[in-house]
Amino acid sequence: MAFLSYLISGLGLGSVYAIIALGYSMVYGIAKMLNFAHGDVIMVGAYVSFFAMTVAGVPFAVSVPAAVLVCTLLGMTVERLAYKPLRQASSLAVLITAIGVSYFLQNGAQLLWGSDTKIYPTILPGAVSLFGGQLSVSYLTIVTILTCILIMVCLMLFINKTRTGKAMRACSEDKGAATLMGINVNKIISITFAIGSGLAAIAAVLLCATYPSVYPTLGSMPGIRAFTAAVFGGIGSIPGAFLGGLLLGVIETFAKAYISTQLSDAIVFAVLIIVLLIKPTGLLGHKISEKV
Amino acid sequence: MSEKTNQAPVLEVTDLGIDFGGLTAVNDLNLTVYPNEIVGLIGPNGAGKTTVFNMLTKVYQPTRGTIKLNGQDTAKMTTIDVNKAGIARTFQNIRLFMNMSVLDNVLTGMHNEITYGNVSAIFRLPKYYREEKEKSERAMELLKIFGLEKKADLIAGNLPYGEQRRLEIARALATRPKLLLLDEPAAGMNPQETEELMNTIRFVRDHFHIAVLLIEHDMKLVMGICERITVLNFGMMLTQGTPDEIRSNPDVIKAYLGE
Amino acid sequence: MNKVINTLFNPKVRSRTISFLVVIAAYVILTLLSATGHLSRLFTSLLVPVTAYIVAAIGLNLNVGISGELNLGQAGFMSIGAFSAVVVSGVLQAAGVGDILRLIICMAAGALIAALMGWLISIPVLKLQGDYLAIVTLAFGQIIMSLLNNSYVGIDSKGLHFAFVNNTIQMEQGGRLLISGPMGATGVGIASTFTAGFVLVLIALAVVYNLMYSRSGRAIMASRDNRIAAESVGIKVSQAKTLAFVTASCLAGAAGALYALNYSSFAATKFDFNNSILLLVYVVLGGLGNMTGTVIATTLLVVLPEMLRFLQNYRMLIYAIVLIVIMLVSNNEFLRLRMQMLRTRLKKKGAEADE
User: Fold this and answer.
1) Residue B58 backbone class (left: φ over 0; alpha: ψ -120 to 50; beta: rest)
2) What pLDDT band is residue C158 in, cutting at 50, 70 and 90?
3) Does A100 touch chain C (CB under 8 A)?
């Protein structure tokens, strides 16, 4: 029964990773950049929802869309100001700029809101008791997992059924050809950043509801984890990010429970390396071979 | 030519074929190249000419058939082994080391000929200087053949197109091949440059005593310098013969012009 | 005479000469300033770490700039060198070895052990390509940090004692802990000097330049520029990339040792992901493949946050903005073209003057 309990909490944590990884992966797929500032968008989302609830006094349900709105705008602004001028530059230049943005957001948050840890209010207390009380699953975990599945389904429908979604896929395949087909590539990239950042805000709220502390470097670790999850599943692939996130959460939880808390980090990354050695482009990524 | 065919062939390809995911790209290809010969491989677009080069150099692993290089089976060889065994090539879409100097591109071709190790390099032992000097001189000679000696210190990526194509041949020759594969060497060149290139190819053949197998769409070049020509169509060998025979073959004309 | 001038104008000779001159000039000036008491304590304390970061960054530039593989775990190799040095230093101190010799042996040991780890890691890493390779180097950096954070090493008259995850070391009286888990290295005997750092920078530059302009260096650059063409001229691409990767880890190891023996204690988190990223920032800002640039960028970017101290809390914010602006300006297409035009015009003028 302990196993099942760990599995469920692992899936809960994994769902948060998956939501962040989806944003990571979409941005990578379309803009072909590693957005190291993605984790810090989560942090901003966490602060926004925190202040919405504690200072403005709005209910949790209102704070979420507020965080999504702010993060979406933030993502689009950052893209417009920092990344768009570098469309023709090397991927390393963009990577370094993303790191600069990450520092900027972290230090900006520290200046605006202080470096102290703020305690996030309790959301959705209580748990469902199963098997005559042997297994208890918190409402929060259930909501987290369901949210993640819902997001995943919506994203898949969006990508496969809508015009914008199809344009996104075209851009990820070949930007030049997409432009020739009359697709506004800049607009598509902007939309991608908007969606990714919006998702980051949702992840932020779920993350803080589970681990209720808010501080300026809050996003770093989940950011790296989600990046790992995205690569794990095959970066650029949406189902891959979903699968990678869930697996990573479960592996991390199991490693902490059964092996060692201190070594969980090493174990997670070791599993990643093993997976990549067996499948060099991640679980669901596909190989692109060079034409000679 | 008859005196050439008496010698043992440099390249002997029998029943060569390759499939890509169930699709046959090249099938039943037979091809022999003798020392000091210039052989042409022609055919309409998509006939599988470059695929043949990729199989010869093991960029692709053939599905069927054998490739013998100087009588040696290349089945177990890698691209690197094939180069060491004596095949050098150029690429249809130029593949130079674009951020390196023209001279360094040619020197890189002498990689397996240089004997000093990393210790000699890091401590700059006399062996390093001696060998670098020797190889640089040979590289300059090669560049001279292609009229690039004055551009030795330029970055390869900044050369004009025609010069890049010539540099690629120089780099291939630096590996001291016995068989040189040229993939559309005259592509993008004007008639005068093509004329010069024909002379250079002949000179290279005579000077280094090597065989040349070339893919080309420029019929003037192909008919002008090839002693034998193999025609591919839809991955199959259509016919083989001397330039005159190919010119008058109705099947070839049909393949090029369509029915 | 003419020959000397010609050699100096050879771009390869020129770039290395400039590198060495810059480093030597900086050393002379800083030593003079420090001897005459014109250097603040803060700056004096930065001298050794700066040289350590320069050496690690030079190595990383070989990996990222010359070999073209993104490495997000260079700080991990620094930590291997640092912690190896701490253990070796502990042993040597117990044996009563003098400071200079101890430092030299520690740097050699750090370099060697980091190179060995680099070689082991390169076997799986270099099977991958592009961003997948990058994430695996990140993963290795994290694993190394996590393992070191859980390592305990002690020394007493019987020799070295090791423990993992929990400190179960039992020592005789007079024994002391060298590495104590999350606390990191403790009681390190300081031996690093600015002069040692300066010599290490010169060695690093010599190694990297000599390697770059040799058979192996050409193979490394050729593999970066065009993998398929490199193989077509008989170059073993994975071997070339391994050499770059191992040399980079070796230099990081020596740098880590230099860094370690400059502090009496430090934690493994000193070499975390953020540090790997910082090293990458130095390399990219200095220019890919440009070693002089790496030296200058590293120095400026280590010193910059300290110079910005008067801005107090705004310091890191300004640092971030500076970083973004530099990237935007240096990659601006319009400015780049203008610079190119200016350069060709100057060259033309120079050529006319020659005639």
Assistant:
1) left
2) confident
3) yes
